[in-house]
From TrEMBL:
Residues 11-190 form the 3-hydroxyacyl-CoA dehydrogenase NAD binding domain. Pathway: Lipid metabolism; butanoate metabolism. This is 3-hydroxyacyl-CoA dehydrogenase. Pfam families: 3HCDH, 3HCDH_N. Keywords: NAD, Oxidoreductase. NAD(+) binds at G16, A17, G18, V19, M20, G21, D39, E99, K104, S126, N150, K280. Belongs to the 3-hydroxyacyl-CoA dehydrogenase family.
Amino acid sequence: MEEGDRLKEQSVAIIGAGVMGRGIAYVFANAGMKTSLIDVKETALIEGKKEIDRLFTESLERGKITKKQMVERKNQLTFTTDWQQACAEVDLLVEAVPENMELKRNVFKQMDELAPPDCIFATNTSTMSPTELGSITNRPDQVIAMHFFNPVHKMKFIEIAKGMETSEKTVRKVQEFARAIGKETIVINEFPGFITSRISALIGNEAFYMLQEGVAAPEEIDKAMKLGLNFPMGPFELGDLVGLDTRLNNLKYLHEKLGEKYRPAPLLEQYVAAGRLGRKTGRGVYDYSEKQN
């Protein structure tokens, strides 16, 4: 049996139906795997289903899947608030809750109580420690970080970070899952911020310092990065996409772990305090309210 066919017999559950969680659920379901999207809020699941339905329809219209495939793959996908049922027979659990270590620890405790002993636990963190999360479970060798990128269905890369106790068997299995959903990977040893977030956080934070100092308008800073350094998105466009609250939480964690160079720009803190979190609230550095109407 081919690797992809074998993995299609596996079941996956994603905890957290936010922007990342729903994107991760879509790519696993679209690869033909039995997939559950779990959240404590019914409203989050409703929004998640709406977005996943849109992605399936878009894929159908572009000729990437047939109508039969779309129906089959949607039927493989469930949305639930019932953790116990969704985790009972799952092979891979992906945690995709906000970047808050206390919240993640609580989620991992529940995962450990509900999931089968051989289930692999992956955290979709961009900065935090799979070693710490693994330490509160009875399976630290089966805990790893799978850092997906937004938008999940378009970004071809997953940054895999192994903790101190993560086994090579777990690494190989997670790489197999990644290949099955069409992603390229790298495997790194855990360190705060991994590779991508350490660099991205510095760039995004420096952009806010420049905006705070009046160096240039946001549009000019973004344009300079895109045309001068060939970035696909400017730092403010990216920040608004991932969420300025997420960016701030990452910086606070990196500042605590790695020191002064990651101290968040005061202006970024002001934006978050004002509720200007980016696309998800209709306004961040840029105003998206007209585009949403």
